[in-house]
Automatic annotation (TrEMBL):
It comes from the Bacteria. Belongs to the UPF0182 family. It comes from Streptomyces sp. NBC_01393. The chain crosses the membrane at residues 24-46, 66-90, 120-141, 173-199, 211-236, 264-284, 296-316. The keyword DNA-binding does not apply. InterPro entries: UPF0182. It is found in: Cell membrane. One of its GO terms (cellular component) is extracellular region. Keywords: Cell membrane, Membrane, Transmembrane, Transmembrane helix. This is UPF0182 protein OG699_28850.
Length: 994
């Protein structure tokens, strides 16, 4: 063993191989590291497989997995074989003797250095390029499946007369193959050239020929392959013109051929294809001629032709033929774009009709009566009242509601009513003590639905709840109330084992439960426990005693997350919404099939198009897009997620969509037929918001059918900004039951307004029938306002509201003290030729931490009212009272009772209420607070007196809750008993919602 030291007299250090013990330790550590990495990879695979099997979509996992594996190995081996073969061939064609030169002598050292490792070096290079190519190819699994399973659209493009499926399914795969071929040719050429140089086949500074005949032939063939692939690219580019994106000032992101494409680029691509074929043949001919002269000339000709024919000539055509007479030249192609875009986005059947924008025919009394029936005006804004739901119906801090509630329809007494609905979901931030057991074993689920009428508030400005309290009760009947899957449920839970879960709490204390569903994955196996301990980075899953027989782990618990996982080929709508269906809480999720290969249809960016003031404030409402740039979209699938079991069901909604048929062919038995949708579920399906937002954005330009008008840009609209939101984002579309002009009854609709580009007056009112299962479902209607008359748009209406002196003064009083005024949704309703605007106004202030409906703004035909109730506001605007409803006094009439004590207390309650309303109008918050206290005391006296009377008569006494979520045990929110539906029969009427 050699010694090293500082000198003859210095210390000597003995350096040598590590001892056997050290080598054994290092080897053991290496093996353990490899095993640990292998188990981490296995854990990810195994937990994914278990999850897909638990939701009964294992075929999605296996189909996707085997497709990725197949593509990885096929294209990885092809790339490795191509590069490896050319390295081997270059080495085999090396000259027997290298030239005597300084260059070759320098290379001798490298040749000698790698000589013992040539095979290993070849294996390493080919393995590396194979791995990279295989990984890239495996990411094309969607492209492969669409190509293999593609079904025809039975629609042909107007230029090449090929079925749309060629562009949507075939062309993307051909382009991938072409790109792979280019990569293989370039890598092979580089590898072969380096090998030839290393072994003397190519010389840079050596005297004599620069390349041997063998190297010349080999590299020429590779260059010929590259040029041949370029010829194929030119040919495919001809068809690519039909789906090529380009900026066109009249349309934005134009897709398809324009005049210059059809008359310059298309013939240029054909000519370049022919030149490339000839050039490739010249390269192949060097196998016999052994000279670069002709191939180089041919390649130079191809490059020059690409510049002149492919670049300069189209520019000349555009400059001297198109621009001097653009509208005439482009009109035929614009017509093709108009038709294709309208077909691709489902707006071809849009009904456009002229609308006066003002009523000149009916008298005010008739208009007032029509205002009662034209729409169910929704005063409860689901995007405002979530804090009110939270305060009145949270009950426990560990429950919560989403920041944006949902609007649905429920039937009562044979009539549909718009309903604001939310689920009391689990909120871990509110649990008394956060630890691993509480977070994942005890607090595992939410409980119950909370719903209110959308068209009315009670006398205090609070929602009139139709489903309330804990456990929930009300109009929805009996249903499974436990919520294990929801929008706010993002953490994993372990249920069903020895550790009991908190179900809910009432006066008698906490109620516990144990999950009885079959959802989730069993943790009885040590392998499963170890895999999830690794996957979730939580070692306690391995050894915790809280996990035992029957324990199951629940994860991937948000509805959108589950649907996206079982159908990774779908684009998911941003707003999943709950509904009570057949005794179960079901999350309903709209899903889309998309492509960006529809010829001539202009593209749109889903992320931008579906953004509005709500998505800006709540990113959870953003669309989950597989393809952000699309030019074809269909709401092809309606999905449901059971809030208790987590079961995911996909239903075919668009039975004609070829993209969905393609995916159903690729993933058989994953999508149920449309006939499988039950009538109870059908009643809650609706037209999706994100699809409507995409369509309304396209309709800003594509509502016109005439090419000349389209090109002039005189009829371009825009989606207005939300006038009640300071983010500067687009106004969201609103769900509203309304009756369009010419219709005999109301229909649940999704509505929006349009303004001229760069202006604030109104251009159009757009609505779509959102009521699934009805003949008119999905029909888009546009009421087009006259261009010669200025009709105020949302921003102007809001400005008028704010600038009206009397309204401004009232708003100032409402803002007295530390109160805040919040504007609700500004609803637009067509009414007898004019437009009725209604906006609820909420006040949040004082000790109240939630908004209450205090005023209603109404305007019609230039008349504006700002009153306590909708009825009063309509009466003032039309200067007439409704003939179909009793006069709305805006006050609460006390119920009658034969018990004089009860009647006296109710009279005191009415007096206190009137005093509170008077104080509110004056902005005297101190007097208002005192009146509210008197009101609560009076109602409590009435309730106690009535309970004593009931008990004396053998009754059961009063409920422990007031019917509005007020828990008198002190565990709930803090509303006064006056909010009870039973305590004030006329409170609903007094809200002015009729």
């Amino acid at each position: 063993m050699p010694d090293r030291g500082g000198g003859p007299t210095g210390p000597r250090i003995r350096v040598g191989r590590p001892s056997r013990r050290v080598r054994t330790l290092l080897m053991t550590l290496g093996v353990l590291a490899v095993l640990a990495m292998s188990f981490v990879m296995f854990a990810g695979f195994w937990t994914d497989w278990l999850w897909y099997r638990s939701v009964h979509y294992s075929s999605v996992f296996t189909t996707t997995l085997w497709t990725k594996i197949g593509l990885f190995f096929v294209f990885g081996l092809l790339m490795a074989a191509a590069v490896g073969f050319n390295i081997w061939l270059a080495h085999r064609l090396r000259p027997p003797l290298s030239a005597m030169s300084m260059e070759q002598q320098s290379l001798d050292r490298y040749r000698m250095g790698i000589a013992p490792y040539k095979r290993w070096l070849l294996l390493a290079i080919t393995s590396l390029v194979g791995l990279i190519a295989g990984a890239s190819a495996s990411g094309q699994w969607r492209t492969w499946l669409m190509w293999v399973n593609g079904v025809p659209f039975h629609q042909k493009d107007p230029q090449f007369h090929l079925d749309v499926s060629f562009y949507a399914f075939d062309l993307p795969w051909y382009r991938f193959l072409l790109g792979f071929g280019f990569a293989a040719a370039v890598l092979s050429l580089i590898a072969a050239a380096l090998t030839h140089y290393l072994y003397g086949g190519l010389r840079i500074t050596s005297p004599g020929a620069r390349a041997t005949a063998a190297a010349t032939g080999h590299l020429s063939v590779l260059l010929g392959v590259f040029v041949a692939l370029k010829a194929v690219a030119y040919w495919l580019d001809r068809y690519g013109l039909a789906v090529k994106s380009s900026d066109f000032k009249a349309t934005g992101n134009w897709t398809g051929l324009r005049y210059v494409d059809a008359n310059a680029y298309l013939p240029a691509k054909t000519i370049l294809f022919c030149i490339a074929v000839i050039c490739a043949l010249l390269f192949f001919a060097t196998l016999w001629r052994r000279t670069w002269q002709l191939p180089v000339i041919g390649f130079g000709l191809m490059v020059l032709s690409a510049v002149l024919i492919g670049g300069l000539y189209p520019a000349i055509v555009q400059k001297f033929q198109v621009e001097p007479n653009e509208q005439a030249k482009e009109a035929p192609y614009v017509e093709k774009n108009l038709k294709a875009t309208r077909d691709a986005y489902g707006i071809a059947g849009t009904d456009v009709q002229d609308y006066a924008g003002a009523s000149d025919t009916k008298d005010k009394a008739e208009l007032r009566d029509d205002a009662d029936t034209v729409a169910s005006i929704r005063l409860m804004d689901p995007n405002i009242v979530s804090p009110t739901f939270q305060q009145l119906q949270q009950v426990r801090n560990y429950y919560g509601f989403p920041s944006n509630l949902d609007v649905d329809r429920y039937t009562k007494d044979g009539k549909d009513q718009d309903t604001v609905i939310g689920l009391r979901e689990l909120n871990l931030a509110g649990i008394p003590k956060s630890n691993w057991i509480n977070d994942h074993f005890r607090y595992t689920h939410g409980y119950g639905v909370v719903a209110s009428k959308g068209t009315t508030a009670d006398s205090e400005g609070r929602p009139v709840f139709t489903e309330y309290d804990l456990p929930s009760k009300g109009d929805l009947g009996a249903y499974q109330q436990q919520i294990y899957y929801g929008e706010k449920t993002t953490q994993y839970s372990i249920v069903g084992g020895p550790q009991k879960e908190i179900d809910y709490s009432d006066d008698s204390g906490e109620k516990t439960t144990s999950y009885k569903g079959k959802s989730g994955i069993s943790l009885s196996s040590p392998v499963n426990r170890a895999a999830y301990a690794v996957a979730f980075g939580e070692p306690q899953i391995m050894y915790s005693g809280a996990i035992g027989e029957g324990s199951r782990i629940l994860y991937n618990r948000t509805p959108k997350e589950r649907v996206e996982a079982v159908a990774p080929w779908l684009t998911i709508d941003g707003d999943a919404y709950p509904a009570v269906v057949d005794g179960k809480i079901q999350w309903i999720v709209d899903a889309y099939t998309t492509t960006n290969g529809y010829p001539y249809a202009s593209r749109t960016t889903l992320g931008d198009t579906t953004a509005d003031s709500l998505t800006a404030a709540n990113n959870q409402r953003a669309v989950v897009a597989q393809q952000n740039q699309v030019n074809y979209i269909r709401n092809s699938v309606k999905a449901t997620v059971d809030a208790y079991t987590g079961d995911v069901k996909l239903y075919q909604w668009d039975t004609k969509d070829p993209v969905l048929k393609t995916w159903m062919k690729a993933f058989p038995n994953t999508v149920k037929s449309k006939d499988s949708i039950s009538p109870a579920l059908m009643a809650h399906l609706r037209y999706p918001q994100d699809l409507f937002k995409v369509q309304r954005e396209l309709l800003t330009r594509y509502h016109v059918k005439d090419a000349q008008t389209f090109l002039s840009g005189s009829e371009v609209w825009q989606v207005p900004d939300d006038p009640t939101n300071k983010s500067g984002s687009a106004v969201p579309p609103y769900y509203l039951s309304m009756k369009l002009p010419g219709k005999s009854s109301q229909a649940f609709s999704l509505t929006t307004t349009m303004t001229p580009n760069g202006r604030d007056n109104l251009s159009a009112f757009v609505s779509v029938n959102a009521e699934a299962g009805t003949p008119g479902y999905g029909k888009i209607s546009i009421l087009k306002l006259p261009t010669g008359r200025t009709v105020d748009g949302p921003k102007r209406v809001q400005s008028q509201f704010n600038s009206e002196p009397s309204i401004a003064e009232s708003i100032r009083l409402l803002r007295g003290g530390d109160s805040e005024v919040e504007y609700g949704n500004l609803l637009t309703v067509p009414l007898d030729g004019g437009l009725l605007y209604v906006e609820p106004v909420y006040v949040r202030g004082g000790d109240l931490k939630y908004p209450l409906l205090r005023k209603v703004l109404v305007t019609y035909g230039g008349n504006t009212a700002f009153e306590d109730t909708l009825g009063q506001a309509l009466n003032k605007v039309f200067e007439a009272e409704s003939s179909t409803e009793p006069p709305d006094e805006g006050t609460t009439k006390p119920p009658t009772s034969s018990n004089p004590t009860v009647q006296a207390a109710l009279a005191d309650a009415q007096k206190a209420f009137d005093q509170g309303q008077e104080a509110l109008k004056k902005g005297d918050w101190k007097a208002y607070g005192e009146a509210q206290k008197d009101l609560e005391d009076a109602l409590k006296r009435a309730e106690d007196a009535q309970a004593k009377a009931d008990k004396a008569a053998g009754g059961s006494g009063a409920d422990k809750t007031d019917g509005k979520g007020t828990d008198k045990s002190g565990t709930g929110g803090s509303p006064s008993p006056s909010s009870s539906p039973s305590s004030s029969p006329s409170s609903e009427k007094s809200s002015g919602s009729s």
